[in-house]
C-alpha cells in the first residue's frame, strides 16, 4: 500500500469518526434540554444491550453434552457475584472473563 493511500484511508476514518461523534450535537442544535425520547433511550438501552450480550454469550451452550454449559454458568455466577460484591462493572467483566478462560483452558478441556 502506498503512503498516499494509507494517509487517505486514515484521514477518511478520522473524518467519519469525528462526524459520528459530533452528529448528535449538530442534530440537536443549541438546545439546553435533552429531548424526552433520548433520555428514555439512555435509561433503557443499557439494560437491553446487556440482556442481548448475555443471550449472545450463552447461545452456544449444549446442555445435553459435556460439559453441559458448566463453564459458562459458573462464569456468569462469578460475574454476578463480583458485581453484587463490589458494584464495579469493569471488575465484574474482567473477573468473569478470567474465570471463564481459566475454566475452559485448564478445567473443562
Describe the structure.
By secondary structure, the chain is mainly alpha-helical. It folds into 2 domains: 1-32; 46-107, no CATH class. Helices cover 78% and strands 0% of the residues. It contains 4 helices and no strands. The chain has helices at residues 3-28, 36-58, 70-86, 89-107.
What's a quick, concise take on this entry?
This protein is mainly alpha-helical. It has helices spanning 3-28, 36-58, 70-86, 89-107.
Mean pLDDT metric: 92
Specify the biggest β-sheet.
Answer: none
Roughly what percent helix? over 70%
β-strand amount: under 5%
- The radius of gyration over CA amounts to 21 Å
Cα distance, first to last residue? 42 Å
User: How many domain modules?
Assistant: 2
| Low-confidence blocks of residues | none
Structural class: mainly alpha
Please identify the oligomeric state. single chain
Number of strands: 0
Amino acid at each position: 500500500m502506498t503512503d498516499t493511500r494509507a494517509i487517505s484511508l486514515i484521514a477518511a476514518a478520522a473524518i467519519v469518526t469525528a462526524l459520528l461523534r459530533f452528529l448528535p450535537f449538530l442534530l440537536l442544535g443549541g438546545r439546553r434540554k435533552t429531548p424526552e425520547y433520548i433520555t428514555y433511550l439512555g435509561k433503557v438501552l443499557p439494560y437491553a444491550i446487556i440482556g442481548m450480550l448475555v443471550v449472545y454469550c450463552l447461545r452456544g451452550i449444549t446442555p445435553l453434552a459435556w460439559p453441559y454449559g458448566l463453564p459458562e454458568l459458573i462464569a456468569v455466577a462469578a460475574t454476578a457475584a463480583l458485581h453484587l460484591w463490589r458494584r464495579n462493572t469493569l471488575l465484574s467483566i474482567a473477573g468473569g472473563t478470567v474465570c471463564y478462560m481459566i475454566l475452559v483452558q485448564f478445567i473443562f478441556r
